[in-house]
Model the fold of this input.
Amino acid sequence: MVKAEGVHKSFGKLEVLKGIDLEVQPGEVCCLLGPSGSGKSTFLRCINHLEKVTAGRLSVDGELVGYRQQGDKLYELRERETAAKRAEIGMVFQRFNLFPHMTALGNVIEAPLHVRRTSKAEAIAQGTSLLARVGLSDKVDSYPAQLSGGQQQRVAIARALAMKPKLMLFDEPTSALDPELVGEVLDVMRGLAKDGMTMVVVTHEMGFARDVGDTVVFMDGGVVVEQGAPKQVINDPQHPRTKAFLGKVL
Amino acid sequence: MTESQVTAPEQLVAVPVRHYGRYVSGVVVLVLLALLVRAFADAKNIHWEVFRRFLTVHNVLVGAWHTLEISVLAQLLGIALGIVVAVMRSSGNPVTGAVGWLYVWFFRGTPVLLQLFLWYNLGLVFPTILGHATPQIMTPFLAALLGLGINEGAYMAEIVRAGISAVDEGQTEAAQALGMRRGLLLRRVVLPQAMRVIIPPTGNEFINMLKTSSLAFAITYPELTRSVTDIYTNNLKIFELLFVAATWYLVITTVFTIGQFYLERRYARGSSRQLPPTPLQRLRAAVTR
Done:
């Protein structure tokens, strides 16, 4: 579903990604771990072209994201084409980024209505059932400011699901939450994983990575240090940097 | 220590700080104000019956209407231009960005009175526009509308730009991640949130516009100030008629200030858990307390 080959990304002189090779199979849950500044969020944002890769190939479902390859050059796509590809990739942010001027339902039906141009009745029916799925049937008409962090993040997940994505990206979805609200968001994500959604998750939740992840990728300093099955990477890390990091967080 | 033993703690009454100075300064201000009002009310040279008579005379009402009309239209033109220029300047396209910058530079950098004269005298440069004599097209009304509206656009562009940049970048990212393109995400996500920042200064701009529109009297547009000056050059009741104009300006600005309050309240939706009370609600709360 996701295939990265030699992905590089620089911000000016600072090289954040120094050649990432990674593959995520359909239906797989891939957890990206690593210290802050290791480039995992940047890599995640490259997958839907919120950040532009500097070099390397990054494809989703067999198609390059944001670029067209001709010879040995990558030509950036027009906004219309990039937007069409982004519509198939759901993204959940650390700080929720719900639209504060719309209700929970308004947030969920916004993109189906105006990007997919589904009918209003259909969008509302789908939006209501998605909000029910994340356990927020009673918050349909609430504005984001009236919701707790965990509720907001669940609305954000419903909003991303409303576009029927084939891939979901999670950028530290629980890092901005109070500890007692983390569980409700992780439960929703567990449900998604069980339903076979392909997910790439940047997280610091070791428990989630170990229980739900099919693969765990440990990044540091802009490279993949170690990857493999969660039990192997988390319980029996081989690389000293992985050991050092896990020693601090576990 | 000893008092607390005499009285039970719950019988102790907290007394807020007494502001005796407020009573004193309040009285001083009221007296000064009364003296000022009396000075004008008693002034032998001001004929208040003239003021009352001309307050609702036909020409004054027409002038007030014209002031309102040109101000609303010019402000709307300014808002439309401001949004276009603000989007141009933040588009990342260097050509449109430079055009937007030049527009703001010129129209904000020259006096609006001069710009009114430029539009009004356009016929000196272009005697005909699309086959018609320019003076027939560039009426005082159109010259005033273009002069005031295009000038206003330069200020509105800056206000709108500030509003757009006040919206969190995460909003744009979330909209992009949902597959929205620039036009749609501006219209549906960014601008509605920018409105909260844009409206208060825009209300300010409009109230300025109501008064700046009086400059259009220099290009013979019959707005309120021109109506009263036309009358007082005949009857020489200068002060009375200036008071008439001042009264109407105050009436119009007051009405729009109230309208602005409710508009701001509407766009505060979602950003605060509870909307601020309306004056009526505040009054009711103060009475029933």
Observations:
- Chain A touches chain B at residues 48, 50, 79-80, 83-84, 86-91, 93, 95, 97-102, 110-111, 114-115, 143-146, 156, 159-160, 163 (CB under 8 Å).
- The radius of gyration of chain A is 18 Å.
- The CA atoms of residues 234 and 246 of chain A lie 7 Å apart.
